[in-house]
Amino acid sequence: MESDxxxxxxxxxxxxxxxxxxxxxxxxxxAGEDSPLPVRMRPASIDDLVGQDHLLAPGAPLRQLVGGGxxxxxxxxxxxxSGKTTIAHLVxxxxxxxxxxxxxxxxxxxxxxxxIDTARRQRRAGGPQTVLFIDEVHRFSKTQQDSLLAAVxxxxxxxxxxxxxxxxxxxxxxxxxxCVLLTLQPLNDAAVRGLLRRAVADxxxxxxxxxxxxxAEDHLVRLAGGDVRKALTALEAxxxxxxxxxxxxxxxxxxxxxxxxxxxxxxxxGDAHYDITSAFIKSMRGSDVDASLHWLARMLxxxxxxxxxxxxxxxxxSEDVGMADPTALTVATAAAHAVEFVxxxxxxxxxxxxxxxxxxxxKSNSATTALGxxxxxxxxxxxxxxxxxxxxxxxxxxxxxxxxTGYRYPHDDQRGVVTQQYAPDDLVGTDYYQPSGHGAxxxxxxxxxxxxxxxxxxxxxxxRPDGPAAADGRHPSGTGHTGVADENGSEAVxxxxx
Length: 498
Prior knowledge:
Number of strands: 9
Structural class: alpha/beta
Number of helices: 19
CATH architecture of the domain at 37-183: 3-Layer(aba) Sandwich
CATH superfamily of the domain at 37-183: P-loop containing nucleotide triphosphate hydrolases
CATH topology of the domain at 37-183: Rossmann fold
């Protein structure tokens, strides 16, 4: 069970509203002298909470929950170290309620039903209300979450659930609709800094036995990234190192030695995974090379599967770069192959090269929108039979059915393109692909109108040999240029444009 923590920035902690004995009368193990620093420094009243001001207004659901008011079920959603378990401790200390704590890591449907059955019996006998705290509720299966619905609905139990993952993805809708969702935020640097100083001075913490130097404090704040438990755990480790060498101060070197690498806030199966992936894609789409590399580094340092990153790059190459730089798909595919062929850590360089190429490339989503428009028509029932001339004529009897009749072979024409119906009858003349003017797609945009006119048998625009460019922007003179009539009066597709 995670030990999230929220702390007071000043003044001694209030005494618990109910005594907490050695066994933890509030439903949790009691904090002792050998307990971790984050546990010892846990606040004892809601007024000691810091960093969640948006939830602490008078009459707010969190105050009602902690104060034993209306028996509403609540889901606490927030990152590690933001205070979810601390709130559960405060709720547990309400003297008029029976409190049961369990973790979704090791509890099952049988355990949940046993708590509900006991709560129902006690309720019928006039006993105290039961608060059921479930940590890591997102790890419960759909069936396990279903087992809570009836008891939450009729208030046999008041559910207090905690999750680090987006509940809209990880909690079933019927359970979510029966609860109040409270979103906890990471603490800002000022709050973390104040709480570190309190832990240094407080009798429950270091009791002033050591001095935390400014540079070391800055390092711990930076390391925490809004997670107070991480900051206090690092402080405790640094304090132990200082005591071991017989010094009365924690300097930067001691802090760095105690915790040499910052843990990256990233869960490959959690909400941060989707948020960082989204930021990664959007940074490349926005052509911010440096931000793209940052998000790539976040994923790689956190241990993300390099094949996942490679697949996203291959998709991005067509979805967002597309025809503006056709080589982007080649680069992304090569990077994906390198991941399989070379493996990590060396393949990180291949991924970085591909990310730089894709982020810096001109962008076009014309292939994406063209396919989307075509699929919309197909789903709407537009289409119809394959034109007779395009049907397979290779099997015996096909000619007798008229298959292939009238088909014109484009390679027999010197231009490599002929007038012919390729689309079903009700889609003739439909333009799905709308090229952009970005990068390599400019030449496609110039060539495409000519191809469509020839294929559809439309007349060529009138142009003067030495006059200005035609209205559609193509070159008006010279055989071999797009949009120009050849000596037979037919439009020609120039060399390299077929």
